[in-house]
Each structure stands twice: as C-alpha cells, then as structure tokens.
Design goal:
Organism: viral metagenome
Number of domains: 3
Pfam family, one: Guanylate_cyc
Transmembrane segments: 17-43, 50-68, 133-151, 158-178
Number of helices: 18
Strand content: 5-15%
Number of strands: 8
Structural class: alpha+beta
Domain Guanylate cyclase: 300-429
Order of helices and strands: HHHHHHHHHHHHHEHHEEHEEHEHEE
CATH superfamily of the largest domain: Rhodopsin 7-helix transmembrane proteins
Oligomer: single chain
Largest sheet: 8 strands, mixed
Keywords: Membrane, Transmembrane, Transmembrane helix
Length: 489
C-alpha cells in the first residue's frame, strides 16, 4: 500500500513514527492465541468451516504484518490497515452468524455495514481534516441502522452477542470523536475490542458447530423417527389450529432446530437400517454382492395370524386396517426386542414371523424363549383396538428344525429364512384354534423338559391335516390359568 497510498497522502507522510510497546506486546499475544486455535481447527477439530478458517487467516496475517512492520509504520498507517482488515473480516463474522441461524447477509442488512466500511476506507485520507467528524457521523447512520435492524432477529441465536460487539466498536468511535483518549490509546481500545470480537466469535460459532456435529453423528434411526414425529405433529397442529404470530415464530424456530439435527451424511443411518434388515453380518454379504447363505440345524420359527382378519379387511377402509396393524406390530416389535437374540423376519398382511436364537446352539433356551414370546403376544393382542371393538384373537404356530438364512434380492434386500421348517410353522398357525399356540412334536419334546417359570399345559391333537404336508400329531398350549386373555385396560 506504500506506493499507492502512504506516499500520496499527507496523513501518512507527516505522521510521527510512534508505536506503543504495549500494542506490540498485545499483538504478539493475539498472534500466539490465534495461531494455536487455528492449528486446533485445522488438525484436531472435526468441524471443517472454511469461513472460520478464512477469518482466522486474515486476522493472523494482519497481526503478523503489524508485528513485522512495527518499527516502520506510523499510528495512522496502523489504523488504516485495521480499517481494511475490518472490511474483509466483519462480513465473515456476519456470515457465521447467518449460517448459524439459516439467514442470508441481505436479510440482516449486512450491505449497510459493508457500505459503511467501504466509505470509511475511501474517506480515510480526510482523517485529520475538519470533514472527519461529519464523515464519521454519516457513517454512523449506516451502522446505527444496521444495529437497529438486527433487533428484528433478537430471538435468533447469538443476535445479542453480535449487537454487543458492534455496539462496543460504536462506543469506541464516540470516544474517538470527542477525543476522550489520544490517538494511541484509542488504538489500544480498538485492539482489545478486535481481539474480543474475533476470538469470542470463533469460539462461540465453533462450539455451536461442534455440538451440532456431535448430535448429528450420534443420532440413530429411532432419534430420526422421533424428530420426524415431532415435525409431523407440528405440521398437523398448524393445519388444525388458528396459529398466532408468536406461535408461528416458535414453530419456525422449532423447524430450524429439528432440521439442524438431521445428518447431511446419512451413510451411518443407512448401515444401521441395513443391519436391522440383515442381521448376522449379512449386510456385509449384501454390500459385497455375495449370494452366500447360512445353514442352521435347530432353529425355532414362529408365525402369528389374526383371527377373522379377512372379514375386517373387507368391512373397513384400508387406512383403518393399516392403523390397526401398525399398532399391533409396533407392540409386537417392542416385545420381541426384550428377548435376547430373537429376530423378527417379516410381516405380510396380518402374518408376523419371528425366528428363534440364531446366535447360539442352545436349543432348550431357543424353545423356551419362543413359547414365552408367543404367550406375551397372545396377551398383548388384547390391548390392540379392533375396528369393531371386539376382543382381537390370535393364532400362533411354532416349529423347530433345519433352515437356511440369506439375503434375497438386490434392489430391495430382504432377509429370508427358507426351509420345510418354515412351511410347517406356517401350517401350524393356520390350523391353530383362536388364542392358542400350536406346536410341532419336536418343539413339544423339548418344551416338556423345560422350566418356564409358570404352569404350561400341553394338549395333544392328533391327525391334524397340514396343507401340502400331510397328517401330523401336534400339541396345543393352553395359556396358564393366571394368564388373562381379556382386554387389558
């Protein structure tokens, strides 16, 4: 800037070469702090905010130049450099604020502040003339309007902080105009204000981004479901209610908060969902496009079926049936997860399929958990609201034997359990009496030697015709006497 400015304007040529040592010491301290923090941002922080990087680098360059040239620049050259630095850094501070609150620079009227800075730079050669007070007064109108309009966003995060920072510089300007301090002391005031503004802005904005990053990277499918449900209920409330202006503002803030929490990179959510769909590390096979399957010798398979479901589906609208099934399956899912290593496989219409312990070879525990699960499902079905307000009934079939487990399909991967064991379990369910559990002979042989912690009554049922399988001897589990099959209030 020397050939373009310093050699052409009297204010730079005739100024005394005076530079307070305290300013030099403060600049060294500021450079150290900002350098350490920038190193942390670049190499240790998981947040990659290039606006913060740019702000830090510009300020570090400004402070470094000041330290290097402290013996050859005068106080007005130093002041002018700071004015130029402001022109580049203050819009970055405002951008950080806007990004935090999903605003634009135009919305917060940043152009008034930027115009004020530009005019300040252009008019700086008149700094020591009689025109200077009028110039400052004019520029203060721009700044005052900018600060005044910021109050429109006082409900947004960090708005008052930004207002306090800008007000601090305005206060120092007033001190300067009325010459309360000399020009050197004013530079110290500006230096301290600069350090406070830049450092606290970066710390606050980076901390906010760190918190959002932590939440986004630790969110799971259930949390996303919660956020979606909240959003859905907010929209439903908006449509069904005459919303007041204050309530609209609150809703807008809630929408912004919720959208901030949803991860942009949803890869980990997709993998979590894939693991739920494809357990046993089969998601790796799917991702590798492998067609391998896993054989098992003794696996329990359970099927349930709603009694009179066909009649209900014919009588009531699809949305009514859907809500009923969703309620029932949500309840069933909550019960299944209480049992270690049981795995829900699929739901087709009113059919619900679960396989037993596919992680261990403990056959007795396999059968025990599956029968206890079936009893819990029979109990829980009474809590599901039927469209006709009649108590709902369930049929359950359980079999044990050889199966293979693998992934079928590519576009829509699906965990499948295949084998005659599955077919028999399904036929046992279709021929079971309402509110009973029909089990195969193999299941019975294991169950009769198992301690269930309650009285389980087995009733033999001979010559049961299972479609496409033949006549079989089966066993019916009658719920214990202390087990209430009536609707639970």
């Amino acid at each position: 800037m020397k050939p373009c400015l310093y050699d052409n304007f009297e204010i730079f040529q005739n100024e005394p070469i005076v530079f307070y040592p305290v300013i030099q010491s403060a600049n060294i301290f500021i450079l150290t702090v900002f350098s350490l923090f920038t190193v942390h941002l670049l190499f240790f922080s998981k947040i990659k905010n290039y606006t913060i990087y740019t702000l830090s680098f510009i300020y570090i360059k400004y402070v470094t130049d000041t330290i290097i040239h402290s013996n050859i620049i005068g106080i007005y050259q130093y002041e002018f450099r700071r004015t130029v630095m402001w022109f580049f850094t203050t819009p970055l501070i405002l951008k950080l604020y806007c990004d935090m609150n999903k605003l634009t620079l135009m919305e917060v009227n940043a152009h008034y502040h930027i115009a004020s800075n530009m005019l300040h730079i252009l008019c700086y050669p008149l700094r020591r003339t009689v025109y200077n007070p009028y110039i400052i007064a004019t520029l203060s109108l721009y700044e005052g309007y900018f600060i005044y309009k910021l109050f429109d966003f006082k409900h947004q995060k960090c708005t008052m902080f930004i207002i306090y920072v800008w007000s601090l510089f305005t206060f120092i300007t007033v001190i300067e105009v009325f010459e309360v301090f000399n020009v050197h002391d004013i530079q110290i005031c500006y230096l301290l204000a600069d350090m406070i503004a830049k450092l606290t802005t970066i710390l606050i904005m980076n901390d906010h981004e760190e918190q959002i990053y932590y939440i986004k990277t630790n969110i799971d499918l259930q949390a996303v479901s919660l956020l979606t449900s909240i959003n859905k209920h907010i929209k439903k409330f908006e449509k069904s209610t005459n919303v007041t202006p204050k309530c609209k503002e609150l809703i807008k803030q809630l929408h912004g908060t919720i959208s901030n929490l949803v991860p942009i990179d949803k890869t980990h959510l997709k993998i979590e969902l894939l693991k739920k769909i494809l357990p046993l590390e089969l998601e790796d096979n799917y991702l590798a496009n492998s067609k391998e399957y896993i054989p098992y010798n003794f696996i329990c398979v359970l099927f349930t079926d709603i009694v009179s479901y066909t009649e209900l589906a014919k009588t009531y609208d699809d949305d009514v049936i859907y809500k009923m099934l969703n309620d029932m399956y949500t309840r069933f899912d909550d019960i299944v997860v209480r049992y270690d290593n049981l795995q829900k496989i699929e739901t087709i219409g009113d059919a619900y399929m679960v396989v037993g312990d596919i992680y261990t070879n403990d056959t007795k525990n396999n059968v025990k958990n599956m029968i206890l699960l079936a009893i819990d499902l029979l109990k829980e079905i009474k809590n599901v609201q039927s469209p006709d307000n009649k108590p709902m009934q369930l049929r359950v079939g359980i079999n044990i034997g050889k199966v293979v487990v693998g992934v079928l399909g590519v576009e829509v991967p699906r965990l499948c359990v295949v084998g005659n064991t599955v077919n028999v379990a399904n036929r046992l369910q279709t021929t079971a009496d309402p509110d009973t559990i029909q089990i195969s002979r193999h299941v019975y042989e294991i169950a009769e030697e198992t301690d269930f912690g309650m009285d389980i009554h087995f009733e033999i049922k001979e010559n049961v015709m299972l479609k496409n399988i033949g006549t079989k001897t089966t066993y019916i589990i009658t719920p214990p006497n202390n087990f209430n099959l009536h609707r639970v209030p």
